Structure formats: structure tokens, C-alpha cells
Amino acid sequence: MSQAFPEHFLWGGATAANQCEGGYNEDGKGLSTADIMTAGSHDVQREITKEVIKGRYYPSHLAIDHYHRFEEDIALFAEMGFKCYRMSINWTRIFPQGDEKEPNEAGLRYYDKVFEACQKHGIEPLVTLSHFETPLGLLKYGSWTDRRVVDFYLNYSEVMFKRYKGKVKYWITFNEINVMSTKSWMAGGIDSDDEQVRMTAAYHQFLASAKAVQMAHQIDPENKVGMMYAGHFSYPNSCDPEDVQANDDFMHKMLFYCDVQCRGYYPAYKLKEFEREGIVLPTQDGDTEELVRGKVDFLSYSYYLTHVVGKETDLVMKGLNGVKTGYNNPYLPTTEWGWTINPMGLRYSLNLLYDRYQIPLMIVENGMGAVDRLEEDGTVHDDYRINYLREHIQEMKKAINVDGVPVLGYTMWSPVDIISASTGEMKKRYGLIYVDVDDQGEGTYKRVRKDSFYWYKKVILSNGEYLE
């Protein structure tokens, strides 16, 4: 496979503000849903404490101190040759409670400097407006269950689009929006398993996204606005028709989010499900037209693993990261955290999504969480990560050159070690740059280039030709 990636392919990496910035109460920032989540571990769930409790450790409060070190980090990204940096705005830096009329100027100035650093190094920002950090101040409304939050989000979005016009042209409205069906607290400050509650919140996020897409295009016709799907892809456990149907049902539960944002309407299978379950959407006049007019320009998604799904039995049904699937795949290895490693599934997912929606795609998260060792000589040897990324990039290349899928870019997760969203750990490292900090926030915070740093630099310099 010798043909190069497209000439202007957006190579880069991705972070999230609540996982890297720290500075949780600096310069007027308010509290978000991420700021009251404690650290967890491989086998201990993160706790939501509802408020900051003295003496408890909250990883987002310090994270990797990117808030004070962003210039150093972005310079390291530039050293790797990044064309694109996917990052997020921390909503509560701009509107501390979420419902203010006027923004916090100190927060705006901070992101002014971040974008100036990107511009200095020729890096295109890809900005997620809401990445698992709903303002706690919005909980008094019931968070996304209340339609007023749509207007608060649009006020925030308008400030972003106007302030950073000319500096940012690629936007994502919500990170992994389908996480509303698996971890609703992270997705939108919804602490409920009730499907009526979750689907009400999802509806309001769909509406907010659709209106934000239209607003972005009006403010700057150069803006491109995408959705972001948490990449859940699955195979049936066998050719038993019951397993095939169970797999189809699972994918419907996930992909309906893409259906609404890419097609502009709820699919028939979801409406029938609502009818059976007695779920009523909080529709108002004009909403149907808003969803159609607010279809996204591109579909971005995360890809880490694939699932195996089949008919339910008490022996096998279990959850992985909030997703009930249950079967193991005997053909695939797993990471230390039990996530399957399936490079071929990336090509499969690209084809599945493009066949379904026919809009440009972007892979905005793909990486491997592992325990890395900092050697005495200051090196980090992570051949396992290089192998993981190489094999996935090779499959992406096939999707582009063999299958004809239009892929805009690839921002691996993550260019620098950051707090794990699923477990709140530091030892579950994804980065190409090692950060000297442990699970309790102790360390020098020094940045160290891993072997994968130098490898990825060669990949980008060769536009994907070098994959040795």
C-alpha cells in the first residue's frame, strides 16, 4: 500500500480540557461535572461526590497542569509536525455557572493565547465545545432535561464562534454524544438511569447542536461543524439469527445519535421503541425543521475497540466502560484494561459510517492505554503503542485508498499523558509524551518524549508513508 494520504490530511492528536488543564478554580473558572469526580482505578469506579470534599483527590483539579504549560505542550506537538490539534474549551472558564449572560473575560483571554500558540506553529485547532464538563450551575435546572439549557449552550457557542472567528474553523458540538446512553453524568450532568430522562436530555443536545451548526455557518461561512460519536462497533457472537438480531439492536441503540445529527431526523426504529416504552420527546413547533437545517458537516468519532454481542444469558452479559455487551472475542488480544485491540475494525467502522451517511469522516480519538515505565536514563520505550498505532493507521489507509472513504484527519489519543476519563488514573497512559505525575497528583510534571513521539513524527513527515 504505497499511495500517500490526501495532501492536506490533518495529522495530529487530541486532548480534553478537563483531563489535561488543571487550574480548576483559577481566573474565575466555575465547577463542572468533571471537577467532582474522584479518581478510580482498574476495578474501582470513579465516585461523583456532588461537591468538592476537602481531603478527597479530584484528578481534574491538577490534571497535568496544561493550563500553565500549554505553550510547552503545543511546541512539543509542533515538533512532531502536527497539522491539527483537537482540544476542548472548558465551558466553565467562559461561563462559570453556565447561565450567565456575559462571559468571563479571563477565560476568553486564556484560549486567545492557546489559539495564538497553535497559529504560531501552523497547527489547525479542532475545537470541541462540550467535552464531559457540563457546568454544575446548570444542575439547578435539571441540566439537559430543561430546554433552557439549550439557550445557555447557544449563548456560549455564539461567544465562541464570534471570539475565535478566523482562528478556529473546525468545531465539534458535543464529545461522544451517545455516551448519554451509557454514562449520562459524563455526557450531560444527568445522574439517572431512567430512559425518559436520558432521551429528554439527548433531545435537547440534538436541538442545541443543530442550532449551533446553523449559527456557526451564519457567523463564518468557512466554519465546518461536526458531531462526535463514541465509537461503539460490534459483531454478532455467532451466525445464530438471535445473535445477529441482538447485535443489530445494540448498534441501533448507539447509531441513532448519528442518524439524528447526520440525517436530521429520528429513525423509524427509534420512534417505534419510544412508542413501545412510553417515552415522549419534549418537542415544540419548529423543532423538526431545526434538526434538518442543523445537520453536521462531518462525522468524527473515537475508535478504541470492538464489541461482541449476542442473545442475553446470565453467564456472559456484563459491562465494559458502561456498555452492556458481554461476550469476549477469542480472536483478539486485549490491553491491560481489557479493551480489545482490533485494527481491522477501524477500516470496518470507516466503511460502515460512510456507507450509512456519505459525509466526510474524521478519527479524533484512537490510542492505547498502558502502564509506561520511565527508565533511569530518561527514556520511555513503548513499542506496544507504536505497534497499536501503526496497525490502525495501516487500516485507515486501506479505507481511504482501497475503499474510497473520505477521511479528513486523524488525531490520536493522546499526544501527551492525561487523566483517564474512564478511571481517573494517570497510570493508564495514552501519550506520546510522558508526564511525570502519579495517580495522586505527585511528581515533577516534567515532559519526556517517548519512543512513540519520534515514530509519529516520521509518520507525519512522510504523510503516512513511513509506518516501520
UniProtKB/TrEMBL annotation:
Give GO terms: molecular function aspect only: beta-glucosidase activity
Chain coiled-coil ranges: none
Query: Tell me, which GO biological process terms does this entry list?
Result: carbohydrate catabolic process
Entry keyword Hydrolase: yes
What is the protein's name according to its record?
Answer: Amygdalase
GO annotations of cellular component type: cytosol
For this UniProt record, the keywords arranged alphabetically read as follows: Glycosidase, Hydrolase
Show the taxonomic lineage.
Answer: Bacteria, Bacillati, Bacillota, Bacilli, Bacillales
Source organism:
Paenibacillus albidus
> By its UniProt entry, which PROSITE patterns does this protein fall under?
GLYCOSYL_HYDROL_F1_2
Gene of this entry: bglA
| One Pfam family per UniProt | Glyco_hydro_1
